[in-house]
Amino acid sequence: MTAAVTWRFQPQPATLQLHLDQATENIRQLETRLVEVEKKAGTDSLTGINNRHSFEKYLQEVCRSCKREERFVMIMFDIDHFKQFNDNYGHRVGDLVIRNVAQLVAAELPAKGFVARYGGEEFAVILKDQNLDAGLAVAEHLRQIVASRELRRGRDGSRLGQVTISLGVAAGQAGADPETVVERADAALYRAKGNGRNRVEAASA
């Protein structure tokens, strides 16, 4: 009677280590790609600042995580007479105006400031741990900084005019409804535009 033969595979330690290293590297590459995808998903491609999706997510977190009595401020602003830049100089100049304003505002915000492109030439800023008066002061600073710059064409230095922004400011607090805060800031923005542009308006209480 022939004895049964049992095959037993004894893997080589070196082979196992090679497979483990490869799997670890694959996971690392996937994690890196995921971070890049998430960053792109939250970044506006034209300006390099946060996009609207990122803004809405952040606003929800702020409204949910604020402790009782903590406040925050939202500033909505857009570029005055933006259509004229597109009509007079073309969309490439219009894109340049949007990008320059976005980067200028981002550089001038307080440490806890969050800025996003809300859509087109409209932007949104969130300031944590700030009250309405502080928010109005920041908004006025941003208005002055933007208005102090003159747009020039890069290749010949020709003047393209002054860029100004109109801003609306609304205060929020713990448990606030995100959409309501946006609506109040947006209403203040449109009041600023209706009152002559290049100005700051506070949302009604």
Structural summary, described in words:
The strands form two sheets. The protein has a five-stranded mixed beta sheet, with helices on both faces. It has helices at residues 13-41, 52-65, 82-89, 91-108, 132-147, 178-194; strands at residues 71-79, 113-119, 122-128, 150-152, 159-162, 165-173, 200-202. The termini are far apart. The chain is flat, with a radius of gyration of 26 Å. It is built from six helices and seven strands.
Enter the CATH topology name.
Alpha-Beta Plaits
DSSP strand count: 7
SSE topology string: HHEHHEEHEEEHE
Q: Give the biggest beta sheet.
A: 5 strands, mixed
Largest sheet: spatial strand order: 2-3-1-6-7
- What is the count of DSSP helices, taking H or I runs of 4+ residues? 6
What's the CATH class, please?
Alpha Beta
The computed structural class is alpha+beta
